[in-house]
Fold:
Amino acid sequence: QVMLAESGGGSVQAGGSLTLSCVTSGDIFSNCGMGWFRQAPGKEREPVLSINSSGDSRYYADSVKGRFTISRDNAKNTVYLQMNSLKPEDTAMYYCAARTGSGWSLIASWYDYWGQGTQVTVSS
Structure:
């Protein structure tokens, strides 16, 4: 069983920054494509970023380009989401997801494993 645990969420004012972390249990992390998704109340889950297993390819949703960055540390089984210039519309529950293999995706159904989420609230 693969477990993912997000942390780092919180409340911040517009223009501020947060860094989310997602730790993956087991020995498969270095072989997993990873993704971050978010879901605001009353809205569908939407992709944010994805990174392949080696970390040399990153893919961004248009809404976060230039503001958010994804990175990973395979030695620590951890993927990070650095969020800068936060806006109130970034308020959502943020989830990390994993799938074994060398690919990546911004499509939620591609992923096999999901964390429980961490809440990010941005006030104006």
